[in-house]
Structure of Protein N-terminal asparagine amidohydrolase-like protein:
Amino acid sequence: MFLEQDFIEVNYAKIDNSGESARPLLSQGHKLIGTIGSLYVFQREYAVVTPHDNSTTTCCSVVVRHSGSGVVSVGHFDGSGVQEGVSDMVTKVQQFSSLLGGHGVLEVHIAGGFLDRRGYSEDLAVQLLLAFHRQIVNIHLVTFCVCNVNNLFKGSANYPIVCGVSVNVKTGEIFPSTFTERGPESTLRGARLLTGGSHEMLDMYETQIGVAKIDPFNYEPMRGIDLWLNEGDDFILQQNPFPSVTVFAESRPLYFRKDEYGQWIAI
């Protein structure tokens, strides 16, 4: 019996080995993305923006765009919450597209990952293809720049060629990028990943009002508590061991808006 997983893995090998869809992205140089008019998406986050947002949305891994409305969703996947994250991205792009009007198709671009020794990148790429395959709407895979075709051999180690991509929401242009800032509150958002307190993909942008959002989260119990007990009270208190209480007042999200200088301001 030819199972769904087998079908995806066979087609993954064909797409990855050909590299045809990756060439337009790989042929471009990396652009430096500044603070003004940009939004950075962390791991386990996604954001949906419309052409009316005056911004460039930056991320790694996945872009879903409606060719008619221009609505874009970008997600930074690391293997957690793949199926739910993909479904949420597709659903929200469809919802906003129906409000804006315009006929079109859902286009998908997947970039990132390389030939790592443990095969994490390949496993994630297959998970993403499987998640999109399971959607009830037609998906057009436009760019697949992962693993084999995105791999560069330096010395005795493999490295990814494209680590991050940006999307110009006005034109739909997708290009490799590096980033000068990853706000708002990059340390806090990074802590959610390192402490194991949240494994789902979070929507970090309120499209209707144009603000970034950080949802409340807590940490899982930490190992090595004996080491923490050797630290002083001031050090421990600075670590916010219960952020849902100490950081998120009344368990409410934090909201931020960019000013005219590209700086994130809490609101």
The radius of gyration is 19 Å. The chain has one domain: 1-266. DSSP finds eight helices and 17 strands in the chain. Residues 1-266 form one domain.
